[in-house]
Predict the structure.
Amino acid sequence: QVQLVESGGGLVQTGNSLRLSCAASGYTFSTIVMGWFRQAPGKEREFVATISRNGASTYYGDSVKGRFTISRDNAKNTVYLEMDKLKPEDTAIYYCAADPAYYSSDNHYSGRLRDYFHWGQGTQVTVSS
């Protein structure tokens, strides 16, 4: 059974940092492209970051570029999102997602929401001003 479980959310002040984790099960994790998305109240789900199955390639949404870092530990079946210099506009529910499709390239990644078939339950991040 495929399962993604996020953790690490919380309430922080502007400028501080948080690290989110997403533990995956039911996959051969090292074959899966992973991503982070977020959704603020009244807004559509937004792409945040993605990482290739070998961890060598990453891609970020414009609003988080230079502040957030995605990484993965395939031995632990876990993907991380390090969030630095947090701003109030980063307040949202953050979702981990998996794209289980086969890609010939180990460096493939995707920022398209429709490529992701499995989702976690989300973790709330609130940044106070």
Q: What stands out?
A: The radius of gyration is 14 Å. The mean pLDDT is 96. Residues 70 and 81 are 5 Å apart (CA to CA).
